[in-house]
Amino acid sequence: MADEVYQDNVYAEGSQFHSFKKVLMEMGPPYSTQQELASFHSISKGYMGECGLRGGYVEVVNMDPAVQQQMQKMMSVRLCPPLPGQAVLDMVVSPPEPSDPSFTQFQAEKQAVLADLAAKAKLTEKVFNAVPGIRCNPVQGAMYSFPRIELPPRAIQRAKELGLAPDMFFCLRLLEETGICVVPGSGFGQREGTYHFRMTILPAAEKLRPLLEKLSQFHAKFTREYS
Fold it and tell me: Nearest 5°: CA angle at 48, between 45 and 50?
């Protein structure tokens, strides 16, 4: 099952999206003829970001016919997505062609959205990497950063006393004291003895920089408190 909803959000220089289906076909038999694949895409992500409209699709390749029949049956008895979501999905999979009147405007708006996200990805990396105790790898794509944070031993001990993962303890304190909501890295799996959090790069640039600085200041305060 391939989650490919961020296929347009690639920011790293020299990088590009490679679909699972493309790679599968390039591998040739027996993979291209036998390996089952379900690829997902959505209008709620990517450059569209129409989170309220809700529309998406799944393409299946090499699925067992009997299983695909049951999937089709299950889909047929469920309610269909809202009409606006279906309309936007049609536009996503069939964007304007160069000969269409709207092509120039569509391309300009799409590139503006992606350029803005790329700039915020670089801003996030730059601000975090200037802070002692926080390290952030380049945000190569999608809409999230995943910084690694250093936590003092006393903070780790306090988290254990409360029955919390150390990065969960940090994230809860961050939320309580600043109103900033991030997701602890322990929910995604991480190397033993390391701590992270995940945060989005979606806020407008004029809001994102103060948010990053506020978060960095909290980390410094938290570190002093438990040192």
Answer: 75
* pLDDT one-digit tens code per residue, 19-42: 999 999 999 999 999 999 999 999
Closest by CA position to 124, among listed 62, 181, 207: 207
Q: What are residue 184's DSSP bridge partners?
A: 197
Point out which residues pair with 40 in neighbouring strands: 3, 58
CA 204 to CA 31: how far, in whole Å?
43
Count the alpha carbons within 13 Å of 69 in the hemisphere toward its beta carbon: 3
> How large is the average pLDDT for residues 173-196?
95
Structure tokens, 210: 């103060």
Same domain, 85 and 109: no
Partners of 2 in beta bridges = 39
Residues 89 and 110 in one domain: no
> Can you give the CATH number for the domain in which 157 is found?
3.90.1150.10
Q: Which of 123, 127, 118 is nearest to 214 (CA)?
A: 127
Report pLDDT digits (tens) over 76-88.
888 777 888 888 8
Domain limits for position 204: 104-226
Residue 219 near residue 131 (C-beta atoms within 8 A): yes
* Count of domains for the chain: 2
